[in-house]
Design goal:
This protein is an alpha/beta fold. It has two domains: about 260 residues, Alpha-Beta Horseshoe (pyruvate-formate lyase- activating enzyme); about 55 residues, no CATH class. About 45% of the residues lie in helices and about 20% in strands. It has 15 helices and 14 strands. Strands 1-2-3-4-5-6-8-7 form an eight-stranded mixed sheet. Strands 9-10-11 form a three-stranded antiparallel sheet, with no helix packed on it. Helix 1 runs parallel beside helix 2. It is globular, with a radius of gyration of 21 Å. It binds iron/sulfur cluster. Iron/sulfur cluster binds next to loops. The site of iron/sulfur cluster has 11 residues, from loops.
Length: about 375
């Protein structure tokens, strides 16, 4: 569920979101999501597409905690009555730390309406860097939000961090490790900054690129984080993700397994029946499309790509290699009816010789060197 609202815009972000002027736009979005879910259910039935009870639900953004918890609850309820939720359904809400510190008890309220997992956009533990990035929270706010989430009783509490921010040093990375290790977090995601031209950081990079850590420094930062998290008991289960046992993100694992999913909200993307779609990145255009009887969630206007079998095989490999367990030969054969070796041995063998891929006869997976050169590995399969 894409929640396209933020209280302000961060210096590095080009995701679609708007700062809501009043509650009217939030209410229109809410009604739109409920309508989209109903249309997905009706049209899936009309097209003979079976939707099994949902194993995960994910509210991403934007900043989902900008909308009232009652709306999150209403969407969970609607999804449950239309599609069913499995008893262990993982329900995640992304939140910015300051949004849990409001006088209204947001963390507790989210937990009470069935949210099982909270993902906090911490990004850094340096107040100087947070201010530069345009974030509205401080490092103390993150620590307090994690404690409130812990008291509220979420199964999984995750924080996102970014490496490669301007003026960031190895000392900042050590501070992230100390904060994580002293907290009840059981999941952490770490993403390298991608400098997008049309953002404040894009302009800063053009003016003063030396303020951004280069690739070597960023790699050192990543190695330091991997070693620090692993020695603290986190498993590095995906290129950018670390979890204590049992706290892996089931929702994101579904993407890396190239499983189908549907989505609602402006700019939300889905992958069903071999078709990848993206809703328009505009609340008004998305609402118009939804109300158009001939278009809607299964119309032709939202199609990005019809994934043919050849592309699906490549995706199974390159997405699966993001997971440290890698790609299973058995699963590949069951899904595609052909062995991975028959299709890709010419790509796999040189990568093994270069030390980028490991092969234990059942799974192929990235080595630790392969994690550093994942782009090169991906190119070999294209
Ligand atoms: S809060 Fe998140 S989605 Fe909103 S502008 Fe900042 S990074 Fe982007």
């Amino acid at each position: 569920m894409h929640v396209p609202f933020c209280l302000s815009r961060c210096a590095y972000c080009d995701f679609y979101s708007v700062v809501p002027k009043d509650r009217t736009v939030i209410e229109s979005w809410y009604k739109g999501v409920l309508l989209e879910l109903r249309r997905i259910a009706e049209e899936a039935a009309a097209h003979g597409v079976a939707i099994a009870p949902l194993e995960t639900l994910y509210f991403g953004g934007g900043t989902p905690t900008v909308v009232p918890v009652s709306m999150i609850a209403g969407i969970i309820q609607e999804a449950s009555s239309l599609f069913g939720l499995t008893p262990e359904c993982e329900i995640t809400v992304e939140a910015n730390p300051e949004s849990l510190l409001r006088p209204t008890p947001t963390a507790k309220a989210l937990r009470e309406v069935g949210v099982t997992r909270i993902s906090l956009g911490a990004q850094s533990t340096s107040d100087r860097t947070l201010r530069l990035a345009g974030r509205l929270h401080s490092a103390d706010d993150t620590e307090n939000a994690v404690l409130l989430a812990h008291e509220a009783g979420f199964d999984v509490i995750s924080c996102d961090f970014i490496t490669g921010l301007p003026d960031e040093t190895i000392t900042d990375i050590d501070s992230v490790l100390s904060m994580v290790n002293a907290s009840p977090l059981n999941h952490v995601s770490v993403y390298a900054l991608s400098v997008v031209s049309d953002t404040h950081f894009g302009a800063l990079f053009r003016k003063n690129p030396s303020r951004f850590p280069d690739d070597d420094v960023e790699r050192q930062m990543t190695h330091r984080l991997v070693a620090g998290f692993e020695s603290a008991g986190f498993q590095h289960y995906e290129i950018s993700n670390f979890a204590r046992p049992g706290a892996e993100s089931r929702h994101n694992t579904m993407y890396w397994q190239a499983d189908p999913y549907f989505a609602a909200g402006p700019s939300a993307s889905s992958y069903m029946g071999g078709i990848r779609r993206t809703n328009p990145p505009s609340i008004n255009k998305w609402l118009c499309l939804l109300k158009d009887e001939t278009e809607g969630p299964f119309g032709k206007d939202s199609i990005d790509e019809i994934v043919n079998e050849n592309s699906a095989r490549i995706e199974t490999v390159i997405l699966g290699l993001r997971l440290t367990r890698g790609v299973s030969r058995t699963v590949f054969l069951e899904r595609h009816g052909v062995s991975i070796d028959a299709l890709f041995s010419k790509a796999i063998e040189p990568l093994i010789k270069k030390g980028l891929i490991d092969d234990d006869d059942e799974n192929i997976r990235l080595t630790s060197r392969g994690f550093d050169f994942a782009d090169e590995v991906v190119r070999a399969f294209l």
